[in-house]
Amino acid sequence: MAKEPIITNERVDDIPLLLTQLEHIGVEQLIDKHFPCHGNWQGLNLGSVVVIWLTHILSQADHRLNHVQAWVSKRLETLKNFTDESLRSLDLADDRLQAVLRYLSIDANWFSFESELGSSLLRVYDIVPEQVRLDSNQ
């Protein structure tokens, strides 16, 4: 007798787009590089937690800590496809996110993170214009 498949329905919305864009920028690797965690940090790495939290903030337009865990638990399978398979909703509990804020509040690490992130996002071109035209109608 064949086993019936387990079907899970989740609302995906803009999550794949946001996670892919954050992956393309390299936020997870840069966070892990510039904000070292204490040796007792367990579970999902700091960079992955930040990426999922940023996805929640951008998707839901809500920065409150206490709403993230419930949001993750409703979209666990979708998020597991983009992150580590060991993702649990407890990895984004409000006390865990508070610890993330403590790590991100170190100014020296933040400046080096911003510098490296900006260097991969911005391009500066040396353009010497031959003509400049201004439109006076506004």
Class derived from helix and strand content: mainly alpha
Q: Report Rg.
A: 20 Å
How many domains in all? 1
Give the low-pLDDT segments: none
- What value does the average pLDDT take? 89
The assembly state of the depicted protein chains is single chain
Give a count of the beta strands, DSSP E runs of length 2 or more.
0
Largest sheet: none
Order of helices and strands: HHHHHHH
Instruction: Bin the helical content.
Output: 40-55%
Strand content: under 5%
Discrete helix count: 7
What form results from the Cα inertia axes?
A: extended
End-to-end Cα distance:
75 Å
Describe this structure in words.
- This protein has 138 residues and is an all-alpha fold.
- The chain has one domain.
- It is 54% helix and 0% strand.
- The chain has seven helices and no strands.
- α2 packs across α3 and α2 packs antiparallel against α7.
- The radius of gyration is 20 Å and the shape is extended.
- The chain starts with 14 loop residues before the first helix and ends in a 17-residue tail after the last helix.
- The relative contact order is 0.16.
Structural topology:
Elements: H1 15-25, H2 27-34, H3 46-60, H4 68-74, H5 76-82, H6 94-104, H7 107-121
Helix pairs in contact: 1-3, 2-3, 2-7
